[in-house]
Design brief:
heterodimer; A: mainly alpha; Rna Polymerase Sigma Factor, Chain: A; Arc Repressor Mutant, subunit A; 2 domains; 9 helices; B: alpha+beta; OB fold (Dihydrolipoamide Acetyltransferase, E2P); five-stranded mixed β-barrel; elongated
Amino acid sequence: MNPNRRTDEELVAAALTHKEAFAGVMERYEPRLRRYMHRITNRTESEIDDLLQETFIKAYRYLNSYDASFPFSSWMYRIARTVVISDHRKRTVRPEHTQVIDDDLMTTIASDEDDPETAAIIAEHRTRVRDALESLGSDYRDALVLRYFEGKSYTEMSDIMMKPEGTIATLLNRGKRALADALKQYDL
Amino acid sequence: MSSPLSKRILERIEKERIRPRPRWWFVMYEALVWSMIALTGSIAGITIALSYYRLHAGDVFLMFTAGVPWYQLLLVIGWIGAFVCLFLLLLYEVRCTKRGYRFSLYAVGGAGALVIIGIAGLQYHAGVIHTAELHLARTMPATYYDAASARERFWSSPEGGRLMGYIVAQEGAVLEVRDADGSYWVVHLSNVPDIAPADTHDHPPRYGLFVGTQSGTTTFSACAMTVYEEEAQRRRSATGTPRAFRGDERLVGSMRTKRCAPMRITQ
C-alpha cells in the first residue's frame, strides 16, 4: 500500500513489525518537524539534521508507548520539542540566540511583486519582527509559533507543550502582548 | 522515495540494533511509578500521624508554654516542615499526567496534603500509631527508654518551672504529686480554674506535667498542666515506688488554659 495513503496509526503499527515502515513516518514528519525546529531554534541545517535524527530514533524506541487515542502528530511534536530543549540545556543554561522566524514566514509578509523600495522596508521590518520574537520568553515564543506558524489547535498545543489549555490561552495572550510591546520598541 | 535523512536513520537503527521497547516495559514502568507514589503516600501518612502523636505525647506545646526558646522547638518539629517541602517537590516532579497536562501545583499539593492528613488522622484515631510506638518500645528498648529518661529529666526541674509526677490526691484546686525521686509536692492550681477533678484524680493512676513556679521546698504553683493516664498492663505492675516514666502513656487530656509568663529554664 502507498505509505502516503496510510494513516499515522497504520504506519506506527506497521513500523512496530517492520522497521522499514518507519521510513513512512519519517517521510511524513521530516519536513514539518524540520520547519518547526528552524522556527524555535537557531541551529544550522546540519545541527537540525542531528536533532531530527535524535527525534526519530527516540520516537522509534518509544513507539510502543504511543497511545492511539491522542493525535500522533502531537506526540511527534512533543518529542521534537523535548529534544530541542534538551539540546539547549546541554549547550547552555539559556540559549544565546533563537531564530524564531524563518524565510517561510517572511514570504507571508513580503511578495515578489513588491518594488525594491517596499522590499527594503519589508526586509527591515522582517529583521525587527524576528528580533522582537527572539526577545520573548521561550514559552511565549513556542506558543506563538505553534499557534500561528504551525496552525495547531489548543488541544494539540496542550499535548505538545504539556500544559493545560487554560495555560496555553494565557501564554498566547501574554505572548501577543509581550510581542506588541517588543514591536513598539522597534517602532512597528 | 526515502530522503537521505531517513535512510541514515534506518541505517543507524540497523547498525545499532535499535528496537522499539516492548509494551510490557512501559506497563511495568507505569506500575512502578504508581506503586512508588502509593508507597510514598502511605509512608507520608504514617509519618504525619507519628508527628501528630509526638506533638501531643511529646509535650511540645507544653514546652512552648514553659518558655523553651523557639529555635530549640524548631529542632523538634522543624523536620516536619522539611518533610512538607520535600513532598511538595515530589508532587512538582510527578505533576505531568499521561496526556501531558500539568495540574495546578497548589491543587495537587492541597489535595495530597488533605489525603495524607486524612489517612494520618484515621490511623491516629484507630490507635495504629500508639501500637507502633509500643512496638518501637519493645523492639528498640535502649533507644526508646533513653529518650523517655531524657524526657523525665527535662520535666523534673521544679526550680526551672517544670514538674512531673503521679497525682496521688486532690483537694479542690490543690494536688498532691509524687515526683520521680519519690518526693511529694503540693501543687496549687490557682491559675487553672476550670480543671475538672475527675480528670486529675481517678483510677487508673495518672500523672501530670506541670508548668509554673516553685513557691516553696515542696510546693509548686502551676499555671498549665497536661495529664496522662497509664496503660492497663502497666497499672498492674505499678508498685507505688518511684520509677522512670517510660513514655508509653496514653494522653487523656490537655488542659492548658492560660499561657505562662516566660520564665528561665535550666536544663
